[in-house]
Write a structure and sequence with these properties.
The protein is an alpha/beta fold. It is about 35% helix and about 20% strand. Helix 7 (about 230-255) runs parallel beside helix 9.
Length: about 325
């Protein structure tokens, strides 16, 4: 069924209002998640829960979120296990909802966020995951930036090669529970706070695609992002993101999924190495060596780590 935009309608499936679990991971961010939780609870969608997975070393986040505990839609969980993928897996495992929505603790969602997620999944049962727009809030561009991802038309990724044009962000994503189960959940060694540093979102999308699911990118679903970074912090972010891309593309290649080889070559030579060579030739700084170093370090880490063949997940036990 084609992806369409327009008036929101109730999906035609066995349940008029599929339940949604919203997962927010946070660690040592104090009251940052308060605005996020407030904006989600403001959604009029009739069947959802908000689960905050707190990996903080202090009680400041729990204290900031305490007023929400009287709302039956809100669930607070503290864990000592660190890592974004671990937090997502824990939150999903503590819910029974058939749809999972994920955003970050420095984001704000609109009042139609959950409606539009449910509508998008209702269009096609083969859609296992979706990414929406992550829009940067106003900030001082002379001092830094806010990571964002913005598209204007919907894209339905049906093959591994199409991921060369799909660059979604985990700050605005959703997936089906059954799809999450089929691939064994998020890879616990990936994502911020874990050894593989980043890429848990792209890794999940690739593994779902290999299982036959399609991935939807849609501008109809969006969040506002407050996550300001200085330019120095930005270099670290670029390294981590490139590291995660190298890891997520190397994993399936190790297991013989050679259909991803063109995507790997495109990512490395065209998107990562080519800009560096071009900048060096023109002597235009920055040369962007950070991306190359990150990508290659990710490839090396993926080759050196034990990998399970069933779910294409690192063995984190």
């Amino acid at each position: 069924m084609p992806v369409t935009a327009g008036r929101e309608v109730v999906p035609q499936n066995s349940q008029p209002f599929p339940s949604v679990a919203v997962i927010i991971a946070t660690r040592n961010r104090g009251s940052s998640a308060v605005t996020t939780v407030q904006s989600i609870l403001a959604n009029p969608y009739p069947s959802f829960k908000v689960l905050v997975i707190d990996q903080s070393d202090t009680t400041s986040t729990e204290e900031a979120l305490a007023p929400f505990k009287t709302d039956t839609r809100f669930i607070y969980i503290h864990t000592k296990i660190i890592g974004l993928a671990h937090a997502h897996n824990l939150g999903i495992s503590q819910s029974s909802s058939e749809l999972i929505a994920i955003t970050d603790d420095d984001c704000e969602v609109p009042a139609n966020w959950l409606d539009r997620i449910v509508t998008a999944f209702g269009q096609d049962e083969t859609i296992g995951m979706l990414f929406g727009n992550t829009l940067a809030m106003p900030h001082n561009a002379e001092e830094g930036f806010v990571p964002e991802y913005k598209i204007t038309t919907a894209r339905l990724v049906q093959s591994s090669w199409r991921f060369s044009r799909a660059r979604g962000m985990g700050a605005c994503m959703a997936l089906r529970r059954k799809a999450w189960l089929e691939v064994g959940g998020f890879d616990g060694l990936m994502g911020c706070g874990a050894p593989m540093q980043s890429g848990e979102d792209a890794d999940m999308a690739l593994r779902l695609n290999l299982k036959g699911y399609r991935v939807l990118e849609t501008p109809q679903v969006q969040v506002l992002h407050y996550g300001f970074r200085t330019f120095a912090e930005g270099r670290q972010t670029v390294y981590r993101d490139a590291f995660g891309v190298g890891v997520s593309l190397t994993k399936p290649l190790r297991l013989g999924h050679l259909s991803l080889l063109p995507l790997f070559l495109y990512e490395f030579f065209w998107l990562t190495l080519r800009p560096v060579i071009w900048n060096v030739v023109r002597w235009r700084r920055p040369f962007r060596f950070t991306m190359v170093r990150g990508f290659m370090a990710g490839v090396k880490a993926a080759l050196a780590s034990p990998l399970g063949a069933v779910f294409c997940r690192f063995r984190d036990f």
